[in-house]
Model the fold of this input.
Amino acid sequence: MPILGKFPNLRHLELSRAYKGKKFTCKGNGFGQLETLRLGNLENLESWHLHTTAMSMLKSWSIFGCPELKKIPERMEHIAVLDCYQSQREYYYRFPMN
Done:
């Protein structure tokens, strides 16, 4: 994630089965132009840490197929609307576009 976060014009990112680690860390000012993020089928992902200045332009995002992820970044919890499809173990987090 640190390398992807440095791409200055990255606006849309979808990762599916692309990461086998347990932890995501998005450092300060990373993903500065990112507007949409979709994370899927990251079966080992347990935690996601997001610096307060990372992903500052994000307008919508979703996470699905991450059964070990127990918590989204605290900064997102206050603005996220959660639709949960328990039977499929899919979790979609979205917050309204401004």
